[in-house]
Amino acid sequence: MVHQAQGQMVQEVAAGSLPAPPSRYVLREEDRPTAGAAAAPELLSFPTVDVQRLADPGDVEETAKLRSALESWGLFAVTGHGMPESLLDGIRSAGLEFFHLPSSEKLKHANRTDAGEFQPEGYGIDRVDTDEQVLDWCDRLYLTVQPEEARRPHFWPTTPPSLPKLLHDYTLGSEKVAKLVLAAMARALGFADGFFLGLVGEKGGTDARFTYYPPCPRPDLVYGLKPHTDNSVVTVLLLDPGVGGLQVLKDGRWVDVPVLGRGELLVVVGEEMEIMSNAVFRAPTHRVVTGERERMTLVLFYQPEPEKVLVPAEEFVGEDRPALYKKLGAKAFADGFWDAFALGERTIDFLKVKVEQQEQQAA
Ligand SMILES: O=C(O)CCC(=O)C(=O)O
Ligand SMILES: [Fe+2]
User: Fold this and answer.
1) What is the ipTM of this complex?
2) First to last CA, the chain
3) Which ligand is nearest to the CA of 270?
4) Ligand nearest to the CA of 136
5) Using CA atoms in the order 270, 210, 17, 26, what is the torsion angle rounded to 10 degrees?
6) Which SUPFAM superfamilies match (predicted)?
7) What is the pTM for the complete model shown?
8) What is the pLDDT of residues 270-321, one digit of tens each?
9) For the chain, which end, N or C, has fewer CB atoms within 10 Å of the first or last residue's CB respectively?
């Protein structure tokens, strides 16, 4: 699909110092972030989990904390991951340095084909399908980081030269976090540590997304990133230590995710886990609001091997709890994400994966 807006980076629009964002970015009044003020997270005690403690199967207290964080929020801050602050600071500054390069440099890794078509990997904006689509106030660099043989080096920036190695090291460090969390999520439900890891497979795919949110002249009119749930089993996020903007929908209200400490990560449950666990763990809806300062984040999406089948595991299905989702291939689900995201829909809804009530009764 070729849409003319596909070529316009938000960073360039923002550099024009317009008094307000162009109409392509302006939300309908009822969707604007100011429609309902976000609640302060301190009042709701935002959860933090120590993954070093999670690695100890005897630490039932930390496992219980994880379960409660997942049930009440679907996301939590992470400490004890073992990655030095120098690595986290290093990959953050390398990412920011990339976005600060001249366009001609960044476009060497463009996410548009020569014919102007969108492809997920590379530097650019998210997919634009129609004139009606309200665009998000962000540019992004999207890269497949695992399995290693699936990396496509021409999409990887070489300026700054430190970026590929830092991203590699960060990928390995945060993969450990994802695996520890998946093991503890299984344990929290009384299963063996390998339960979810087995459903994901040894060669699960991981995609990285660096997102750059330029300063916005009217944060009240736009989204940095529209409300969505993640296309992942779990997602590991490295947020900006100086600027907030991420919000999560909790009990029907938007709540600010706090600005985390420089050494902390955030873990979010994705839709694939929601399917596998038959909604025991649900993917929280989240969005990003902009501000007067630039912001950059790095997000890693952990996905099952593409050949795997996504289906509620039989351990979560019984007479009192019918399967809530239909079976489909992990690759079909991952591909469907891009169609769904452009429309602002959940992939589960877009691909009609939910079992309707009548079907449940007939089963
Ligand atoms: O930039 C952020 O804070 C969140 C990004 C996000 O939710 C995503 O990339 O899926
Ligand atoms: Fe997300």
Assistant:
1) 0.99
2) 39
3) 2
4) 1
5) -20
6) Clavaminate synthase-like (SSF51197)
7) 0.96
8) 999 999 999 999 999 999 999 999 999 999 999 999 999 999 999 999 999 9
9) C
